[in-house]
Design a protein that fits this description.
Layout (H helix, E strand, L loop, with lengths): L24 H10 L6 H11 L13 H10 L6 E7 L5 E6 L5 E9 L2 E5 L3 E3 L14 E4 L2 H16 L5 E6 L9 H12 L11 E5 L3 H8 L6 E5 L5 H7 L2 H4 L2 H15 L3 E7 L7 H11 L4 E7 L13 H13 L4 E3 L13 H6 L6
Parallel strand pairs: 4-7, 7-8, 8-9, 9-10, 10-11, 11-12
Antiparallel strand pairs: 1-2, 2-3, 3-4, 5-6
Length: about 375
């Protein structure tokens, strides 16, 4: 699987017009040139899409009628139908959106002291099979187009527009494995980062992977300033294989080699996400082993007290044990924090709302 891997399901075109949200600015400029239109129209179109956030090409009033008709004939402006919207006591909003083909995805708005963060989904379902995650129930249905990922951010931004707020950061940690939909992921990142687009700073965007090793090397070579996280969840390869089947394809040794390459190539810090599962990976000996595994790396550990998923059998680590785990890592000089829980009362873990509301997709 070395080198560029063909993205799963990318051959599907759904016999429909492509989303204009899938086009980067330079790609839109190229399309305009092919249509005999001036290049500067691309900036105007981006302004209508991402600053004014219109839903119809007809609203782009400073474009010639002929160009608006061409846009209408060639593209769609992706719309997402809200099936469910759950509000948490802590201000978290979780959305269940329906796509054009009837499948559904989740998007989460999290409110922090430092701003509003949106967690986006990259696939309908997931093929990775992590044993603690509701997203994998029913497997992978299809990849999302870049425009369908962009549309999630815009949909949440339109909600925030009602209170004159804005999306200030993005985490690509929703349903699916982002690196399993690599080209759409890259297009999404460049579109939302573009100053003429949503203008979300690269260092305010985080991408997380379960550990598709060839894509980690690719991502390191992209030259992006995007924050990077690894879903680790175990300090040794045997335990990780039990929790995350992806480890059987790319074991912990190969993963850590890729992580070291990423750090050396980019000079950037890596975040290790470590979910704590009661009696499974949360003992002091696990913390000691984890410290040995990552000691000396430019990294940070994010400890995650797990949300209970009814379809899975994992239980929450006791609060005292969480702090003991944290103290053990700190004792070894590891930079570590405990993730603040958000949306615990609205089933905010990936895939939970979709599994509950749309059971036919989780079969």
């Amino acid at each position: 699987m070395e080198g560029k891997q063909k993205d799963t399901f990318t051959e599907q075109n759904f016999e429909r017009k492509p989303s204009i949200y899938s086009l980067q600015l330079n790609e839109l400029e190229m399309w305009l040139k092919e249509q005999g239109e001036p290049k500067f129209r691309a900036t105007q179109i981006f302004d209508w899409l991402y600053k004014k956030r219109v839903d119809h090409f007809a609203e782009m009033s400073n474009l010639p009628k002929g160009l608006r008709e061409k846009l209408e004939n060639h593209f769609i402006i992706t719309t997402l139908k809200t099936i469910a919207k759950h509000s948490s006591q802590d201000g978290t909003l979780k959305f269940l959106f329906e796509l054009h083909d009837g499948f559904s995805i989740e998007t989460v708005l999290m409110r922090h002291d430092y701003g509003n963060s949106v967690c986006v989904t990259t696939q309908v379902g997931c093929r990775i099979g992590c044993t603690f995650c509701a997203s994998t129930l029913g497997g992978l249905k299809r990849n999302l187009e870049a425009g369908e990922i962009v549309a999630q951010v815009l949909k949440v931004q339109k909600v925030l527009d009602e209170t004159n707020e804005r999306v200030s950061s993005i985490v690509v940690m929703g349903i699916g494995e982002p690196f399993d939909n690599y080209q759409s992921l890259l297009s999404f990142l460049k579109i939302v980062n573009d100053e003429k687009g949503l203008n979300i700073g690269a260092r305010h965007i985080t991408v997380s992977t379960s550990g598709i090793v060839p894509r980690i090397y690719d991502f390191a070579n992209e030259g992006l300033q995007i924050n990077f996280a690894i879903s680790l969840h175990a300090p040794n390869t045997e335990l990780r294989s039990r929790l995350m089947p992806i480890n059987k394809a790319y074991d912990l040794e190969k993963l850590m080699d890729a992580v070291r390459y990423y750090i050396e190539k980019t000079g950037r810090r890596v975040t290790f996400e470590y979910g704590l599962f009661g009696g499974v990976n949360d003992q002091i000996e696990h913390a000691e082993e984890l410290a040995r595994l990552i000691k000396g790396l430019k990294c940070h550990v994010n400890l995650i007290p797990v949300n209970y998923v009814p379809e899975r059998n994992y239980v929450r680590t006791p609060r005292k044990q969480i702090f003991e785990f944290e103290r053990t890592l700190k004792k070894h000089g590891i930079n570590v924090t405990i993730r603040r829980e958000q949306g615990h009362d609205i089933e905010a873990a990936c895939g939970q709302l979709r599994a509950k509301e749309r059971k036919e997709e989780a079969r």
